[in-house]
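WARN no homologs supplied; continuing
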Amino acid sequence: MPADSWNPDIAGRDLKYYIFDWDDNILHMPTYIHLERRLGNGEWVPHIVSTALFSVIRKDTATYRPPGGDWEKAFVEFRDTVPRTESKFLADAREAIGRLASGEDKAPPSFETFRKTLREGRIFAIVTARGHKPETLRRGVELFIDRVLSDAEKAEMVWNLRGYIVCYEGREKNDGMTDAQVVENYLSMNRYHAVTNPDFIAAVKAAAMPNPEDSETRKQFAILDFLEWLFKMVESTGSHRPVSVGFSDDDPGNVAAVADFIRHTLSERFPSVKFVVYDTSDPDVEKGHKLVVSGQMALF
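OK structure emitted
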C-alpha cells in the first residue's frame, strides 16, 4: 500500500458498527475490586476480586460488601483519582497486552473482533462500568493500536480510513493529511463511555433516565448515545444501506438488560437496524453466545 493510497472498495462496504465492553472482553485487565467478605463467624475481612469474579458475585450482598459501605473505595483502581505518572488503566492495559504477547494469557472473546474493527476502520464505542474519563479510555485504544497491531495492520487501517475520507468526505479532505492525522481523526469519531464516571452519571440524570444509579441503565444510555451519534454520521453520507450494530459484554446481567432495551426501545427507534448481542461470560465459547435481537443481516 503506497503512502497516501486509499481503499476504493470502501464505497460499497457494508455498514457494521460495534459496541464493546472492555474488561474480560477486549483485555483481561489486572485490575481488582476491593471488597470485604463475610466469614462463617460473621467477621468481615478484606477481599479483592477480579472483574470476572465480581460479575458473578456482585449481587451476593450477604457475603460481599464494599469497604465501609463505600463503593468508591471498592473501585478505587477503576478511577483516575489516584495520582500516577501513568494512569492505572494504561498500566494495566500494558500489562494485559504483555501477557498476551508472551503467551501467559489467552485472548478474551472480543479481542480479535476489536482488532479487526480497528484494521477495517469501523466506528465503535467502548462502554465500560469503569469510572475513567473518556480520554483515558481513548489512550487505552491508542495503546492497543500501538502494541497489538502489526505494521502491516496499521498500514491496512490507514488505507481503509483514507478510503472512508475519500468516499464519504471528499478527496480534498484527504489531501495533505499525515497517517497520524488520519488515525487521530478516526479516533475522535468513536465514543468512549465509562458509566461510573461522575460526568457521565450527571448526563444520565439530566436525561431523566429511570434508575440512573443502576449500572445497566447507564450502559443503556451509553448505547443510545452512540446510536444517535452514529446515525448522524451515517445520514451525513447519504447512504441508505442497512446498518448492523454488535454489542458484547461479559456480564450476563448487562447482556440481559441491553437485549431487553433493544427489544422495547431501540428496535422501535431504529427499526432498520440489526442488533446482535454477544454474551461473552463463558471464556470457552469463541466470540460468546450470539443473540440476534432484530433485523436480517448477518453480523461477524
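The first helix runs from residue 51 to 57.
OK
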